[in-house]
Amino acid sequence: MRPAISISATSSGGDLRTLAANTRTAAEGRYAGTGPGWQAGVEWTLLWIENTASQLTEGRS
Question: What is the pLDDT of residues 27-58, one digit of tens each?
Fold first, then answer.
């Protein structure tokens, strides 16, 4: 069973970065005992969120 992580966000770049940071913090310590690949999946998803946030805010001051 996967540990539950409940976090909400809106679509702006700053909010997505906050979502990724909060999710990373909430997931820490929850990897032990999870199925193979769960940690890698969480890390990949967080990188995707952070990259999406960067693309949304590209060129903004």
Answer: 877 777 777 788 888 889 889 988 988 888 87
